[in-house]
UniProtKB/TrEMBL annotation:
CDD domains: trans_reg_C. PROSITE patterns: OMPR_PHOB, RESPONSE_REGULATORY. This is DNA-binding response regulator. Residues 5-118 form the Response regulatory domain. PANTHER family: KDP OPERON TRANSCRIPTIONAL REGULATORY PROTEIN KDPE, REGULATOR OF RPOS. SUPFAM superfamilies: CheY-like (SSF52172). Residues 127-225 bind DNA. Keywords: DNA-binding, Phosphoprotein. It holds the Pfam family Trans_reg_C. GO terms for molecular function: DNA binding. It comes from Flavobacterium palustre.
């Protein structure tokens, strides 16, 4: 029995009904809010494992709600929105969204994103060792193994892979990655990032031209799978 609680903040009745059927049939406990204000009250009184948040709310922009939530809420927030512009997606992700799905969405994909986000909630950021498929990273020893063989990485490559693996399943924007790895002064150096990602792929991917771990989200950033 899946006991995870999910809060849905969305003013569209058909979407809420679809999510109610989909989530409850997969054993999630679901709370619903039609406005940003209602959503904030529910989030405070019943902190869920994950929040599904619409951008186009009747009382406040979902971007504002996202920022308010991120002032104290540190679990997964997945955006569901008809707004599919690169600007909206990047803005949401930079403001702390865990993931972004555009409407209409496939329920199977939504459930997969939810499972990934909840699984990531349960990972301790200070875990000494993380494993993802054929990769294993030891944070204390700063060692990376692929199929149990040590992969030689530079310090920057290690830090980049560590950031990806700690955020498995989450879309990280170019600006976020550049700020976290190289600092604020590098946030516009997207070509710089592409070079390092290409080098890292050569070392950890079976086929760097068809990567299965570091996935490009066109115009936005990267997702580690």
């Amino acid at each position: 029995m899946n006991k995870a609680e999910i809060l849905v903040i969305d003013d569209e009745a058909p979407i809420r009904k679809l999510l109610e059927i989909t989530l409850e049939s997969n054993d999630y406990k679901v709370w619903f809010a039609e406005t940003g204000k209602e959503g904030m009250i529910l989030a405070v009184n019943h902190p869920p494992e994950l929040i599904l948040l619409d951008i186009g709310l009747p009382d406040k922009s979902g971007h504002e709600i996202l920022q308010e939530l991120r002032a104290w809420y540190n679990k997964a927030i997945v955006i569901l929105s008809v707004q599919d512009s690169e600007e909206d997606i990047v803005k949401a992700l930079d403001n702390g969204a865990t993931d972004y799905l555009t409407k209409p969405f496939r329920t199977a994909e939504l459930l997969a994103r939810i499972r990934s986000a909840i699984r990531r909630n349960q990972l301790h950021n200070d875990s000494s060792i993380l494993s993802c498929d054929d990769l294993q990273i030891d944070f204390g020893a700063r060692i990376v193994k692929r199929n149990n063989e040590i992969v030689k990485l530079t310090s920057t490559e290690f830090n980049l892979l560590a950031l990806f693996m700690k955020n498995e399943g989450r879309v990280l924007t170019h600006q976020y990655i550049l700020k976290e790895i190289w600092g604020i002064g590098y946030q516009t150096e997207t070509q710089y990032l592409r070079v390092f990602v290409a080098t890292l792929r050569k070392k950890i991917e079976e086929n760097p031209n068809q990567p299965k771990h570091i996935i490009t989200e066109s115009g936005v950033g990267y997702r580690f799978s």
